Amino acid sequence: MKLTVVDHPLVQHKLAILRDKNTGSKDFRELMEEVSMLMAYEAMRDLELDPVTIETPLTSMTAHVLSGKKLALVAILRAGLIMVDGILKLVPAARVGHIGLYRDPQTLNPVEYYAKLPEDIGGRRVFLTDPMLATAGSAVHAIDVLKQRGASQIKLMSIIAAPEGVERVRKAHPDVDIVVAAVDEYLNDHGYIVPGLGDAGDRIYGTK
Are 112 and 99 in contact (CB under 8 A)? Predict the structure, then answer.
């Protein structure tokens, strides 16, 4: 498993505003999309390219375009949706899937209530989005679902991760790379990342 921390100054600047408890839902949503889009540049660095011949206003040349390898963006509901929205601005042709999970407040284990994926998910490079990689229960379960449906090239994208979450994904799915903007200090007794940014879903949608 490869862990990539996107430490670009623009990402870190926007992440600081995301963490601030005084940042309202409107700005929080916009920043989440922007950070996700910036992170996608790094997450998709290894996409394959094919040479093509094009005509510029001056001459012909060999340029490079994305190969025919198909992409899928899969959001872990609900908070993962906002990341998909940002990434789609870069790869609008990607198919989108959804996996609905919620965390049992007592056991902290994920409970699946919905899964809708592209029929050809097994033939696509999958980018799984979940803003907070905390206990990693949801991420591990979602990866299980993807693999059961035939997906073999999966990359997990999270804004903030806890060391415990990274380690859990590494043990359960060592073939899945992780791309984050930060790895924070630890999980508290309630399973929240510290210092973190609170509950991403509540801050995105203005709920409690």
Answer: yes
- 58 burial (CB, 10 Å; 0-12 / 13-18 / 19+) is exposed
Residue 32 labeled ligand binder: no
Clarify whether 103 is annotated catalytic: yes
Identify the structural domains of the chain with CATH numbers, from first to last: 3-205 (3.40.50.2020)
Read off the pLDDT of residues 75-101 as tens digits, 9 standing for 90 and up: 999 899 999 999 999 999 999 999 998
- Check 103, 144, 149, 170 and give the catalytic one: 103
Q: Is 202 a catalytic residue?
A: yes
pTM over 0.85: yes
Whether 107 sits among the annotated catalytic residues: the reply is: yes
Which of 59, 62, 107, 189 does the annotation list as catalytic? 107
